[in-house]
Design a protein that fits this description.
CATH architecture of the largest domain: Orthogonal Bundle
Number of helices: 8
Order of helices and strands: HHHHHHHH
Strand content: under 5%
Largest sheet: none
Number of strands: 0
Amino acid sequence: MQPFDTERIAAMEAIFDEGERAVAAFWDALERYLAAQENIRTLAGYYESDAWRADFEADEQGLLPVDLKRGVLSEDGVYNLLTDNDAAKEELRAAAGLTANDYQTRALRTLNPALSPRDVLINGVMGLCGESGEAIDLVKKHLAQGHPLDREKLIGELGDVAWYLAETASAVGCDLETVLKGNLDKLQKRYPDGFDAERSEHRAPDA
């Protein structure tokens, strides 16, 4: 058994105390940041409106009171705030990890903009079938033809399946997190204590 070390304990205690302070400060700052988002959206709408342009021009013409605080009329001020706000959101997303909805948004940036809503739906479901077939073919070659399983290529095919899943969900006006949560809710109802062969064999057709 390793002997105790009072210096080690004291060092870890200092880290513990600093960690508690840092986490508490983070939650205070995050609460203020999230509470400010609605007002920042209001500010963004003002900055992009004719009202801001009218106020800016009035300032340029010297029509505003000298003692009026008007940093919001700086050409760069609001833009910099909005840019920094977006950067903060990206940092939070990066710290939290990639969510399903983040993936859907970023993946669909590569969606062909020329497709009609009907074509997006057709492309989505056909793509799901096609990419699933690519995955099946890799496993078939491994099991039936003696090929080494190409793990990296299979992972790539699964990524393609995910892309078409995101497209299909988008085509019917649904985000991926809703799709995934709905599936988990269904499975929880079907197998509340985990998979059960008896429940699987005798479950209702729509369960």
